[in-house]
Amino acid sequence: MTMEPSGPDGLEKPAAPDRPATPDGPGARNRPAAVRAPGISRLAATVERLERQVRDAQAAADGRGVLELAKGVLVERLHCGPAEAERQLRLLAEEAGRPPLELAAEIINQAARDRVSEATQEFLRQAADPSGDPSAGAIDGTAGAAPGRGDGGGAGDRKSTRLNSSH
Questions:
Q1: 148 near 132, Cβ under 8 Å?
Q2: How far apart are CA 120 and CA 81, in angstroms?
């Protein structure tokens, strides 16, 4: 029991039990943090809950973005509309026993690998023929061949030969 300073009569008297404890009142440093500021604990719990909700909402939005991107890949590859692509994605996921989001990520990764492969082949074609002639610079070793000779006797063959001989 805490005692208040003496009143006008000089006697100490107990603190009133109905007086609320204040965070900055006498003896505040000796009280546990939860007792010192019960509002702060509630506020911290609220902030933590809201942060968790924001993280969940961001993850859900990211997941929707991945699903939409995969649908776009399917629209392009299957030559269908978005609704059909979504149906196909869900059907494929169900048949594979995998979550649609996981399958969507795999579809996107495969499409990216395909695109990188296309870009790499285009780069190699251009490297084989710096003139920019799309008919020259073929990867199959016929780049720069003289018409009718079929011997690959052009300058582009040296680069193609170097690329092919590195295997």
A1: no
A2: 30
Question: Measured between alpha carbons, how far is 73 from 76 in angstroms, rounded to an integer?
Answer: 5
Which residues sit opposite 4 in a β-bridge? Answer: 13
Q: CA 105, CA 113: separation in Å to the nearest integer?
A: 12
pTM recorded for the entire structure:
0.48
pLDDT of 25 > 60? The answer is no
Q: Is 129 in contact with 137 (CB distance < 8 Å)?
A: yes
Q: Which of the pair, 55 or 145, is modelled with greater confidence?
A: 55
CA–CA distance from 142 to each of 3, 42, 132, 164 (Å)?
A: 102, 75, 16, 12
CATH pick for 39-129 out of 3.40.50.300, 1.10.238.10, 1.10.10.10, 3.20.20.150 = 1.10.10.10
Radius of gyration of the chain, Cα coordinates, nearest whole angstrom:
37
Instruction: Give me 119's structure tokens.
Output: 């870009």
The answer to whether 15 and 1 are in contact (CB under 8 A) is yes
Mean pLDDT, range 40-47, rounded to an integer: 92
- Rounded distance between C-alpha atoms, residue 104 and residue 127, angstroms: 34
